[in-house]
Amino acid sequence: MTRPRPGRPRHAPDESGDRSPREQILEAAAALFVDQGFSATSTRAIADRVGIRQASLYYHFAGKDDILLELLCTSVRPSLDTARALEDAAPEAALYALAMADAHTLATAPHNIGMLYLLPEVQLGRYDMFREDRAELQDTYARLGAKVAGEDPASAAAARRGEMLIQLVEVVIHQRRTRVPDTSDCHAIAEACLRVCGADQRTIAAARADAAGLTTSARV
């Protein structure tokens, strides 16, 4: 049996692992977008990294804009799902659990795809879906933070706090540039979110204990 030459492109993704062809394309694109930039990455380069023909990539995605959109959405939608599952929980525990789950998602996303938030292309209309998802998540932070602080969730102060809270969680993205964040980092971020809302240490300790049992996503 003749062995293929090293580096020879395959006509189909590697099926020997657990990842689907679509997942392999997303992972390859994430690495290239983060390492060399979105504009500098072509669909051919993505296909070559996976080991497939460029035409095979188009079977799964219309182009690299669609790939970037999916990568962005996968970094925020798990946290949105967690937020929706916490609607009826006590606000202190809910905020702690959401911050934990959100930080964990960003800390474990492949190739630190949260860095892609900073791309200028993300401000274009084709990425509205991601920006709407992130805005909904930020609104949830604002609402929970207001409840913890005993303020009107519709106030300007609550909106500003929501912006601060989501950015506080997203510090994980910047941590990943120099080291790998761990569970203790996620707990520290969750505790800081409650402190921003005026919670004392006793309240924070109770919220941490209660959050552990709220959702599987919060256990990191």
Which short descriptors sum up this protein?
220 residues; 11 helices; disordered N terminus; elongated; mainly alpha
Q: What is the rounded Rg?
A: 20 Å
- Our estimate of the beta-strand percent is under 5%
**Ranges with pLDDT <50 over ≥5 residues?**
1-11
Mean pLDDT: 89
Shape: elongated
Report the count of strand segments: 0
Total of helices: 11
Q: H/E series, N to C? A: HHHHHHHHHHH
Describe this structure in words.
- There is one protein chain.
- It contains eleven helices and no strands.
- The protein has 220 residues and is mainly alpha-helical.
- The protein is elongated, with a radius of gyration of 20 Å.
- The model is unreliable at 1-11 (pLDDT under 50).
List the helices and strands and how they pair.
Blueprint lengths: L20 H16 L6 H8 L3 H7 L3 H11 L2 H9 L5 H18 L19 H22 L6 H14 L1 H5 L7 H14 L4 H11 L9
Helix pairs in contact: 1-2, 1-4, 5-6, 5-7, 6-7, 6-10, 6-11, 7-8, 8-10
Short description:
The protein has 220 residues and is an all-alpha fold.
